[in-house]
Amino acid sequence: MSGSAPEIVPGWETVIGLEVHAELATVTKMFSGAPNRFGGEPNTNIDPVSLGLPGTLPVLNGRAVELAIRVGLALNCTVQRSVFARKNYFYPDMPKDFQISQFDLPINGEGWLELADGRRIGIERAHLEEDTGKSTHVGGGGRIHEAGHSLVDYNRAGVPLIEIVGRPDLRGTEDARAYVSELRSILVAIGASDGKMEEGSMRVDCNVSVRPVGQVELGTRCEVKNINSLRSLGRAIEYESRRQVDLLTAGERIEQQTRHWNEDEGRTHKLRSKEEAFDYRYFPEPDLMPVEPSEEWIAEIRAALPLLPRERRHRLAEAAGVETSATSLTVDRGLDDLAMATIHLGADAGRVLVHLENNLADGVGLLTAESFAALIALETGGDLTATQAKTVLASLVAEGGDPAAIASAKGFEAMDSGELEAIVDRIIAEHPDDWAALIAGDDKERKKKSGFFVGEAMKATRGQADGRAVNELLARRSAG
Amino acid sequence: MSARHLAEAVRSGARSARSVLDEHLDAISAREPEIHAFNVVLTEEATAAADEIDRRVAAGEDPGPLAGVPVAVKDNMCTRGIPTTCSSRILEGWIPPYDATVVERLAAAGAVMVGKTNLDEFAMGSSTENSAFGVTRNPLDTTKVPGGSSGGSAAAVAAGFVPLSLGSDTGGSIRQPAALCGVVGVKPTYGAVSRYGLVAFASSLDQIGPFARTVSDAALLLEVISGHDPLDSTSIPEAPADLTSVLDRGVEGMRIGIIEELSGDVLEGIAGDVRARLGEAAAALEAAGATVETTSVPSTVYGLSAYYVIAPAEASSNLARYDGVRFGLRVDAATSGEMHSATRTAGFGDEVKRRIMLGTYALSAGYYDAYYGKSQKVRTLIVDDFARAYGRYDLLLSPTSPTTAFSLGEKTADPMTMYLTDVCTIPSNLAGHPSMSVPFGVGDDGMPVGVQVLAPAMGEPAMFRAAAVLEAAAPPGAAA
Under CATH, to which class is A417-479 assigned? Predict the structure, then answer.
């Protein structure tokens, strides 16, 4: 479809692969009964297991497994037998100084996610793991190396996470943002996560590399961490692309690194190189059994999945007879059920989508499929102009009721087409210079002048004229 | 007096729990300074618990199958409100906020916990000389070691301080000290007894089990502590078999194999007197109606090597949490990394450090396959070899320890010599099978010899039947 994504640096292509961590919306933590709750006084949502006290053992939360399988199915992954593994490294906010994760046998293998424009982005895997606590470094500008002391809050320690590892199939900032938005919509739609980037329940690590346009071989990538919003994601990708292109054009090589995005400075800085990367010494977690979900259970979970955004776009596109990309806004706003019902009542699909996208951004209030369909029937039957329909629609949202009755109460009447023709002809006659300019002008000028005549017609009819009808008249007159 | 008789006397009101306790506290006062079986004797708590048992009996209640029986618990099992040290400086001062499942079950059965026993630091050792709080001496000869790592629990029973105690067995840490101290020691099937609250050494090998002076008392204690625990994911869901009712059923018709590789014909170092007692034990079983012959379980000879990769690998991860952040010792330093390092340097003893380094190395990138991967393959071979053997035999037989108790300091200079003392016990841990040590006469030095009875997973009933036959046929033991 799009193939040629906008280049951040002309002549260079940015290649992006995202690793998204999402906290699963369980009641309790991944391996214990402590509550999984955002906020709260530090170190209150804890118990011996989530503190990693000596002698404690993990017990897997079945609900976390179910939500992970939902994610896998929604991302078209292979749901498979999986094994937990210990990822060993020392860090004060990690209670056991190892993280229980999944390594060579993740619960969800290979899958894909479809963007609103229909492109499929590869998913390498989506595995389960536990979250760490949170450190606050006091003094030294909040950085661990300069801090006077550090405080640790273990409320988040042991919260279940799903890590979704995407293939490097994204090109440019728009792609990356579209991917994250789509992923977020899916996670929210299936009830797996609340997807709140600002609360950290959804976090994005971004692998960026660049290559000259046309080159097949991938460049050396850098992983950027600490991205906390869609806006930072775009900024970080742009910064990192430019940095890498600058290095390459200066004849230098890219070193594979993990880099930290600094939101205030608007730049990334090096955390560690590949050589300095941790050796996590993964090995199978002996305290947990392999997870072997039965075919029946997976089928049950699949059957209970709600329609996914992708399926809802396809469904609406088919009902409305439009491209799927034309339905994404309506689906994103969750208005597709209303759209479907209204179309099923016989309303003109094009008008349904136009109203939903342009006139119902602030919600649908008391509007029902029935009143919506009746309104569109009045509009397409010529009883209401587009402008009048919009006014009636606003009233249906605010107060509900019968569109015909509202229209009549507002004194909206369909204007006789002969009457409108006479008014338009009179306005043409009153503005000969503008009319000449419209006829002789290029597309831009014609558009501008058409706008002028429509405005005059509206003035003359106190807004009762149908803008589209005026435009048609103008086109006919100028062609004749 | 046996634990069974004590419990019966207390339940029937014939004796008070308080008098039983006082008698044992007197025995402790008399010899504990010399033996040092305990890290702490809980005189006050035990007295209160005994008085409570007496109140309940007076009120017509049944306090349970261990009513008023004094027990000692190895100091690597968590006890709420009572320090749990693992005989390590690094845990000094830590007070668990919860009880291990076995400790709860003891209390629920009416047992009276009189103290926490000494061990090799974090259960790493075979002589209890690796304790940070001083060695435990063998009550039968105080110039000798009690074995280890559960040396305190074995010595406490052998010295008559308590009729019952709990140990943990990762590579022989119950059976080997039982043999060296002339008492009964049982390592149950992996998963038969909950590990929740047992401070982990090597999670896939650790198992809690009983020490007792008689086979019957060991069965009684094992029945109390066995059974499914939802807090341990590796806990066996099925209800444990009844042992008491099968003890007197004998071995008539049983097929029993003596493991050739562990009995002196293949491995060097199995002492002549130990081999002689094993032969007599085999003859006793034969006399009781069993068929006994020598058989080969070839891969058992590789058990020791595999064990000294797998156990340290798991330990390197399990012991990472002792970092000075949340509990136990903290040695302050400029950065959190330096604090980790300084704390661990000061807090761990040499043997623990040695095993952490071994394990870290074995799991490192580039070495994993050659060490950890290979050892897991050996483990599978051992499981397969045992499965073949148990196709032909109901039980297997071997010495528990290659020699009788050795002198204090005799093997501390050479870790390899020390490791070799567990050569006969390790295969059962790697396979997850039950096995137990039964005293069977004495060696040339007058110190006890233990015979090991091995059974397939869940084979405790047959194992205890053979143990009861050996106990009845055993030549006189050593006297404390």
Answer: mainly alpha
Q: How many CA atoms lie within 13 A of B70 on its CB side?
A: 31
Positions of B marked catalytic: 74, 149, 173
| Nearest Cα residue to B46 out of B79, B15, B12, B76 | B79
Query: Which pLDDT belongs to residue A382?
Result: 81
Confirm or reject contact between A84 and chain B (CB < 8 A): no
Interface test with A, best of B229, B325, B357, B379 (most A CBs within 10 A): B325
Count of domains observed in chain B: 1
pLDDT digits (tens, 9 = 90+) for B442-458: 999 999 999 999 999 99
What CATH number corresponds to the domain at position B149?
A: 3.90.1300.10
| Side-chain-side CA neighbours of residue B366 (13 Å) | 2
Which tokens in the block code for residue A194?
């609340």
Q: Is residue A3 predicted with pLDDT exceeding 50?
A: no
B92: closest CA of chain A, how far (Å): 13
| A48 to B340: CB separation less than 8 angstroms, yes or no | no
Of B77, B233, B372, the CB nearest to A57: B233
CB pairs under 8 A between A and B: 99
- Phi, psi at residue A164, to the nearest 5°? -105, 110
For residue range A359-381, list pLDDT tens digits in order.
888 889 999 999 999 999 998 88
Q: Is residue B187 part of a domain?
A: yes
Q: Where in chain A is the domain with CATH 1.10.10?
A: 417-479
**Confidence at residue A4, expressed as pLDDT on a 0 to 100 scale:** 53
8 Å CB contact of B327 and A152: no
CA–CA distances in Å: residue B209 to residues A291, B175, B330: 28, 9, 32
End-to-end CA distance of chain A: 40
Token pair belonging to A126: 């989506």
Beta strands in B1-122 (DSSP E): 38-41, 70-74, 112-117
Nearest to B233 among A88, A98, A287 (CB): A287
pLDDT tens, position by position, A244-301: 999 999 999 999 999 999 999 999 999 999 888 889 999 999 999 999 999 999 999 9
Q: Closest to A283 (Cβ–Cβ): which among B197, B313, B320?
A: B313
Helix axes B17-35, B3-12, angle to 10 degrees: 150
Query: Per the domain annotation, does B98 fall within a domain?
Result: yes
B321 vs A48, A95, A289: nearest CB:
A95
A138: closest CA of chain B, how far (Å): 13
3-state SS, B129-189, equals CCCCCCCCCECCECCECCCCCCHHHHHHHHCCCCCEEEEEECCCCCHHHHHHHCCEEEECC
Chain B hits for A286, CB-CB cut-off 8 Å, are 202-204, 234, 314
Question: What range does the domain containing B161 cover?
Answer: 3-237
In a domain, B218, yes or no: yes
| A60 close to B (CB below 8 A) | yes
Specify the pLDDT at position A110: 98
Average pLDDT, chain A: 92
Q: Evaluate whether residue B335 is within a structural domain.
A: no
**Cβ-defined contact of B326 to A95 (cutoff 8 Å):** yes
